[in-house]
Amino acid sequence: MDLPKVADIVIIGAGISGLSVALPIAKAGLSVAVLDKNEPWSDASGANAGTLSIQVKRAEVLSLIYESIERWKRMPEDYGIEVGFGQPGGIRVATTEAEYNQLEKSVEVQKNKGIDVRMLNREAVRQLGPWLGPNVMAGSLCLYDSYSNPLVAGNAMVAGARKLGGVIAGGNRVSEIRRNAMSDIDRFSIKTVSGDTIHASHVVNAAGAWAGEISSMLGVKLPMEVDVNMLTVTEPSPPIFNRVVTHVGGILSLKQLPNGTCLIGGGWQGRGSVSSGTKNIDYERFLHNMRVAADVIPKIRDLHILRTWAGFEAVAPDALPIMGQLGEDDHVWTLGCARGGYSLAPALGARLAEMILNPSKRDTLLQFSPQRFAP
Ligand SMILES: Cc1cc2nc3c(=O)[nH]c(=O)nc-3n(C[C@H](O)[C@H](O)[C@H](O)COP(=O)(O)OP(=O)(O)OC[C@H]3O[C@@H](n4cnc5c(N)ncnc54)[C@H](O)[C@@H]3O)c2cc1C
Question: Is the pTM of this model over 0.90?
Fold first, then answer.
């Protein structure tokens, strides 16, 4: 694909973060080019479980996750795209007394933040989930917990952004970003390894696990870590359970998609690193993940596993999103590094687009600004 010579905004990274900024920017009529070193959607966003759970989120992002799920739901109206969205509600289970107490506290915090969530005792949780195992002693229910199928959402978002005039170009690794004299349209020259250059007024770093690398090209140090999360998909089966299921103590997220496959994850760590370029399964942890899943929903045991994989998840040191102006230049932006970034990106992306388009919006969400890590 030929790259344009000039764009109002160049976004580096065509995952959920980059595309969530590109869609509203393109809709506002600005020219946007999203560059990815590989195929669009081929890293964390393409590897993720698609769980949009309010109940597992930290208090600091509860209002944002609520907004983000609404934005996921409205993608057909806002952008004319189907993203495999479903809102079956979620049950978060406890299997011990200590977990029960932890769940009660977490529900209180969520209620105080205005989230519609409630505790269910053993009988009530079983009425809603007769498929739950005998060790589940209680749960909490949030009817807003949802999912969006990443296998559907990626292609749809790329197509939606292109329809609005955006250029989404895979196979374009950014290797250098040069700041020029302050003419507005030629403020930055963004170079790719294949020798192309795009001149742009704004740059957005949405490079996921490589955001630190892009940030260094812009002369800013971005502290971040990278997890290696594992995920498993089973063969399709007739319906077994009908909620997004998470666990307050064990690491678990479980859902059955409309095609009958079950996705089993939650954040069990594989092996590998960005520097070595490896992301492998850790078999001991994989087995733990399966045991926790089968303890919570015993019928899962009957299913064959089709595939298990691992992917990188960039995380800030405080596990909160990093979004906003990057460094001193108010034409350089970043978005990413949120724990559960798939769920949060539509809200964060829309807000970042507003900041870029409208200077009066730039003093919002400062708690997530990269400035919090400034020395
Ligand atoms: C197995 C797994 C399960 C997960 N499950 C969930 C879940 O259920 N719910 C949830 O909310 N979150 C989940 N997450 C986290 C979520 O996937 C991530 O937070 C989110 O996808 C990050 O999106 P991103 O766009 O910031 O990064 P990415 O999707 O990684 O996109 C970054 C892009 O930048 C590109 N890039 C990097 N360097 C360059 C360069 N120099 N030039 C050009 N392009 C470059 C990369 O190729 C990549 O495509 C999961 C993660 C994993 C790995």
Answer: yes
